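Handoff note, outgoing to incoming analyst
You'll be picking up this chain. Sequence as last confirmed:
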Amino acid sequence: MDLLLWGVLPYVSIALLIAGTVWRARFDKFGWTTHSSQLHESRLLRIGSPLFHFGMLFVIVGHVVGLLIPKSWTDAVGLSDHAYHLMALSTGTVAGVAAAVGIGILVYRRFKVPAVRRATLRSDHLMYSFLLGAMILGLTATLLNSAGMTDGYNYRDGISPWFRSLFTFTPDYHLMAGAPLAFKVHILFGFTLFALIPYSRLVHMFSVPLKYLFRPYVVYRKRDPEQLANRPSKRGWERVS
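Most recent structure output, in case you need it:
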């Protein structure tokens, strides 16, 4: 079971992510959209969307730092374990709570506003379930670990080396045997969410509007009413008395 969950499932999830994204890009370009419902309701959206997106941005950055940067690197720069965990706990909790509150508002809006509820897709129910579940489980694992209820488990000695071993295609799945259940379920929810990205509205995260950075400026000129008054009227634009 350890080999299946921690040595096979991650690659299946990433394969579904890549294959689904390529398929959507080739055969479903017009369906590659957020399916925005802003026209139906905007008050709750203005609150929930920034909380979720900015919270998730910092959550992702925290996961990248915690999983990809080895413990030896932080020790080399003089950052103690206590200082690292204190910084990770404070920033991670704030970001996680912001993202969870934001997605909670968006879910409430989607099911309580009739117009938004009618625009909800079947894939949205599955996507919101795993997204909200992954956030709640991540916060639960963090709080349990900080409260000392995981017998002093340090994910940087178990989960992080296992995650980095996936990139070398030699998954050290034995390291996951000692991980607490909350961490394991959180990881399973996360990889399932990765596999669902191409088949839901979450695929829009790969649409980065880089063209906006290089497009030419749009010049707007103020017109003088006196100059317009002296210009002859063109056919089709005459004033109607």
